[in-house]
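Supplementary Methods, section 5.1.

A reviewer requested that the exact input to the structure prediction be made available. We therefore reproduce it here, unchanged from the version used in the analyses.
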Amino acid sequence: MQTHLVRRSFLLAVALLAPALFLSAQDAKPSTNYVLKVTPDRADALYKSGETVTFKVELTLDKKPVADAEVQWTITKDGVPPTTSGKVKLANGAATITGKLEEPGFLQCRATFTSAAKKAYSALGGAGIDPSKLKPSLPVPADFDAFWATQKKQLAAVPVNARLTPVKQATAGVVAFDLQADSVGAPVSGYFAKPEGAKAKSLPVILTVHGAGVRGSSLGGATGWVKQNFLAMDINAHGLPNGQPDKFYTDLASGDLKDYRTRGRESRDTVYFRGMFLRLVRALDFLTAQPEWDGKTVVVMGSSQGGYQAIVAAGLDARVTFFAAGVPAGCDHTGFKAGRINGWPKFIATGEQPPASVTEAVRYYDAMNFATRTKAGAVFTVGFIDTTCPPSSVYAAYNNTSGKKFIHHDPDAGHTNTPKASEAMRKAVLEHVKAQTAK
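The structure derived from this sequence is encoded token-by-token as follows.
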């Protein structure tokens, strides 16, 4: 009996000790919870040309400052030269780095720390330098309007031939359809939705458009706006059938539509985006033909490539009264001509010396130029550390718009619409509709 008691006591002691041994083993491993941050010394991250920008670099490990670490840093003009770089030792987990820009644009500060385990941690900080004074890299081509008038004439020769197929959806009081409409090349393909029993001439219309990638249209993208009393349509970027299995779209993304973003860049007649842009006009042809449309309010909304399309739609079609462009792509394709970085889709890669024919062709597809052709109201969003759609490119387009406009800044955001940015867009759209209704 005594032997059993001793054995049980030993096993109990081992059981109680095991978690402590396990924790000790865990504690013995070096932590990898490093956090590196780069922030400018002004909350709004806005400066005047020639002013010194001070970036604060901070490194923590498990939320505690890291002493005596070395950080490499580089400051560029929004990702392109002039470039300055160096190394700095952190004191109590922090150091400051300074830079300046003698012209309108953006500064980008990148800091990199490499741990003892050879793992690199990187962080970006951004600052706007008189961004409202940033000028176009090149003027609008002299025959820009004539070129697009010809394209729209070709579109007008194609009957709309809208095909509506009812689709089931969960929102009460909403009716929805799969919409296919003929265009130049691929059709308009989307989901159209409206309030059940809507009266004639009672509703504004909104067209929502997609960012980069290959996918079908979003039914929720349409029905969500119907709840805000819109006639709404969401179209996919490529005129593809909706509601297909994921493999259908992924196969296209790795096959026929791979690298669509730069396809046909050699000539303004063959750039892939030509068909995408004409589908915007055709989608508006359909929406403004609906009896429920109020006859005066047309909104186009999207982010990234969708923001690109929103600007283009307004520039191509005077029916657009307001557009919302979140972190828009497609801006300042010729930025390199002014010593700036080009926007997505990078028709001309950073550092590339393209044939003159390419430089000329892409000017006809620059949101910066379409922006000059609209009086519509606008809301933009921009991230100061966006490396996909750089802030200098976004401002090149924003500064070219002449209607009532607002731009939402996210100084510490990359290529995303933050919750505040999304709310700014939604609020601006609804305020425009309210103003239109009061007319």
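DSSP finds ten helices and 18 strands in the chain. These observations are discussed further in the main text.
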